[in-house]
Structures are given as structure tokens and as C-alpha cells.
């Protein structure tokens, strides 16, 4: 017991989330406390911008895996075919400009900083820029919509690494927006794209039967099956394919349902995978898109619409693996093919990203957050053990509960 002269206890529970703002530090699933952020951190994968950059970039991407240089050179020819320039950096410049334009149109004073995980400008450069400007509270947008090690946790690990490299732990706090796979702003471009793609098929092949002669292939990046199985919070119990596959399937169903409104028939669809890079002995998600295309003629399919559901922009995996390899495979199988655009700087996508930031700025209640599937709205603060990489183990990560 204390009397009036005894100071009240000032004990504060230790932070459960590393380098988070106070609103997120105790790890709530959704942060419903308003946060006055200083800037937006646009975080991307990065890519080479010249022939001399290609191998150093690929070494950055594969660091710690012991991949021989001859294998890297095999992958490098994709970039070399485009002059050694990945389209991703220019796409992020365009996205940054589009975000800034949308912020200005809404009268929101939030600067946008841009940093990459694997190439210049690096995340650490963006944090140095933030520090020099006096920004201490950042809200990160990772340019990846789904839950997995490579599409979410690795970003969070790289935020932590960048703080360590710059010595800005304790100076800068970083939260992130929720994974936005089922946010209307991300899904809308695919709905528009699929509707346009089907119209293009019908124009090019008059009289084609959508229900029996057209197949929709929703494609995303293949990942190791072990990573997929562990994607999302362990307690959700998604099973084989984890949250990664479940999220893609749920969004595909939403897209098909939206495009089907008012139509008397719709094509069949399947989820396929692409851009595998692991050894043949390691199980990765299947079927590969090219294998799937090869099986379509036997079912009487005459046209295929390819929907790059797992991608936010037309980077190398889209330009090479879809516009080159998959398109050639379709032609070799006498199939008419259409590739639907990625969100890129689609107006609804850009607006949606700003809406996601404002959820955190305003502390929007969970019930008021839009999501088009029963899986969401996804977590603001990633849950403990989320998206484990069994080969690398748990490394320090921001915007989530340990480990």
C-alpha cells in the first residue's frame, strides 16, 4: 500500500515488437490507435540498371546460398536480353510519383522515400535520408501483396538489417501496412484486366465458347513448398500451401465472381506457378505455368488468359517468364493467349495503397477496413512464428512479434 506521497509506478511493459511505434509495440493484430507518421517508406526488390550490374545484383539476391557464378550467368541472360536493365526500378519511380500525386491531391503531407532490398537505392540509403530529414516514424509499403517468407518476412528482416547497418536503432521506428492481397485497390485492376482479356479473346476468336474453350490461368511466383506450408501464422492452420496459396485462391475466386456478373458463362480457371529457381530435388509449388499450358489442348481449350495475380508490376518475371516463355508455349500449343496487366500505377491500386497508409494514420477500426475475402483484413503486426524459412531460421525482423 502507498500513501499520497508515494510516486505512482512508472513501469511500462517492454516492447514486444522491435523498433515499432508505441501504438504497435505491444503487438496488436490491428493497430486502432492513430499514429502521426513522418514519411512513407516504399520498399521494393530492386533490379540492375545496366549490363555491369547484373551479376552483382544476382549475387545480392542469392547471398549466403553458395550458388556458383555459372548458374547466375544462366539467370543473367534474362536481364541481358533487356540490356541488363530490369524494369522494376523505373516502375517504382513511377509508383513513387503516383503516390506523391495522390497524396498531394488529398492534401496529405507525407513524403515518400524509396529503398530496395537488393540494389541501389538500398533500404539503408532511404533510412539515412529519413534521418537527415528528421523523420523518426515511418510506415512501410512493401511491393508484395501476399504472405510468405520472400514476400513479407524477408522484407521485415531487411528493415531490421537496414536499421542495424545505419546505426539508427532507437532513432527510427518502422511499422508496415498490412498485406493487401484482398484489398479492393489491389484486386480491382485484375478484375478490369480479366474482363478486357476475355473481350479480346472473343474478338480474336469469334464464336469461341468461354465455358469449354477458354482457360484462365492465375499465375504467381513459385516458392519452396516448405516456405509455402509455413506462410501465415501457425495458429491459422492453413495446411499444405499455407496462407500463400490460400490467399491466391481466395482472390482468384473474387476476380472470377466479379467478372462473371451479368454473364451467362465463364471459363474454368486454375492457379499455376512460375519462375522456379530452386534445385530439382527441392519441392516447389506446382504446376508450372508452361506445363499447365501444355495440357490444355487435350481438353479442347483454344485460348488462354494469363492473369499475373501474384505480381504488382511488370518486372522481369512478368516480362520474361510470361511475355516470353509462357507466350511462346501457348503459341507452340496453338493457343491464342492474352496476358492481363499487373496493377502498376492503376488509379485504384495507387488510391488503395494510400488508403492502407491512412488506416494506420487514422487508427481505423478493424471492422471498417475493406477486404474482399474472408481471410482478411490481414494483420498490421505479423504474428509470432509467421512465414518461417526453415533453411535460414528466424532472423530479427520488424513489424511483427518475435520470433
Mind explaining what this structure looks like?
Residues 1-9 have low confidence and may be disordered. The chain has a four-stranded parallel beta sheet, with helices on both faces. It has a four-stranded parallel beta sheet with strand order 6-5-7-8, sandwiched between helices. The longest helix is centred in the middle third of the chain and has 21 residues, at 184-204. Strand 3 (137-142), helix 5 and strand 4 (173-176) form a beta-alpha-beta unit. Helix content is 38%, strand content 11%. By secondary structure, it is of the alpha/beta class. It has helices spanning 54-61, 69-80, 88-105, 123-133, 149-166, 184-204, 210-213, 225-229, 242-260, 289-295, 316-319, 321-332, 347-362; strands at 39-44, 112-116, 137-142, 173-176, 214-221, 268-274, 303-307, 336-339. The two termini are 38 Å apart. It has two domains: 39-180 and 347-368, Rossmann fold, CATH 3.40.50; 184-339, 3-Layer(aba) Sandwich (Rossmann fold), CATH 3.40.50.1400. Fe(2+) binds at residues 221, 317.
Amino acid at each position: 500500500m502507498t500513501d499520497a506521497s508515494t510516486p505512482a509506478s512508472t513501469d511500462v511493459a517492454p516492447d514486444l515488437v522491435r523498433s515499432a511505434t508505441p501504438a504497435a509495440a505491444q503487438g496488436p493484430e490491428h493497430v486502432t490507435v492513430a499514429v502521426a507518421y513522418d514519411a512513407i517508406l516504399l520498399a521494393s526488390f530492386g533490379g540492375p540498371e545496366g549490363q555491369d550490374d547484373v551479376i552483382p545484383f544476382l549475387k545480392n539476391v542469392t547471398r549466403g546460398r553458395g550458388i556458383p557464378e555459372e548458374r547466375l550467368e544462366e539467370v543473367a541472360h534474362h536481364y541481358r536480353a533487356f540490356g541488363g536493365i530490369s524494369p522494376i526500378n523505373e516502375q517504382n519511380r513511377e509508383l513513387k510519383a503516383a503516390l506523391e500525386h495522390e497524396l498531394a491531391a488529398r492534401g496529405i503531407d507525407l513524403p515518400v522515400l524509396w529503398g530496395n532490398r537488393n540494389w541501389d537505392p538500398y533500404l539503408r540509403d532511404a533510412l539515412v535520408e529519413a534521418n537527415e530529414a528528421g523523420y523518426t516514424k515511418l510506415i512501410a509499403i512493401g511491393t508484395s501483396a501476399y504472405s510468405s517468407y520472400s514476400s513479407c518476412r524477408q522484407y521485415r528482416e531487411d528493415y531490421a538489417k537496414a536499421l542495424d547497418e545505419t546505426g539508427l536503432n532507437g532513432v527510427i521506428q518502422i511499422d508496415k501496412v498490412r498485406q493487401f492481397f484482398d484489398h479492393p485497390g489491389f484486386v480491382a485492376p485484375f478484375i478490369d484486366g480479366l474482363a478486357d482479356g476475355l473481350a479480346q479473346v472473343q474478338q480474336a476468336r469469334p464464336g469461341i465458347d468461354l465455358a469449354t474453350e477458354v482457360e484462365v490461368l492465375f499465375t504467381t511466383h513459385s516458392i519452396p513448398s516448405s516456405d509455402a506450408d509455413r506462410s501465415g501464422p501457425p495458429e491459422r492452420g492453413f495446411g499444405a500451401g499455407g496462407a500463400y496459396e490460400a490467399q491466391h485462391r481466395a482472390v482468384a475466386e473474387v476476380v472470377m465472381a466479379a467478372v462473371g456478373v451479368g454473364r451467362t458463362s465463364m471459363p474454368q480457371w486454375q492457379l499455376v506457378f512460375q519462375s522456379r529457381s530452386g534445385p530439382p530435388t527441392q519441392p516447389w509449388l506446382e504446376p508450372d505455368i508452361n506445363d499447365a499450358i501444355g495440357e490444355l489442348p487435350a481438353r479442347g481449350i483454344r485460348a488462354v488468359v494469363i492473369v499475373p495475380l501474384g505480381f504488382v508490376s511488370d518486372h522481369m518475371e512478368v516480362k520474361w517468364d510470361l511475355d516470353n516463355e509462357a507466350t511462346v508455349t501457348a503459341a507452340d500449343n496453338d493457343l491464342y493467349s492474352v496476358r492481363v496487366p499487373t496493377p502498376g500505377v492503376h488509379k485504384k491500386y495507387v488510391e488503395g495503397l494510400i488508403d492502407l497508409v491512412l488506416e494506420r494514420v487514422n487508427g481505423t477500426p478493424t471492422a471498417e477496413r475493406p477486404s474482399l475475402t474472408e481471410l482478411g483484413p490481414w494483420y498490421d503486426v505479423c504474428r509470432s512464428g509467421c512465414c518461417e524459412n526453415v533453411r535460414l531460421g528466424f532472423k530479427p525482423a520488424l513489424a511483427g512479434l518475435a520470433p
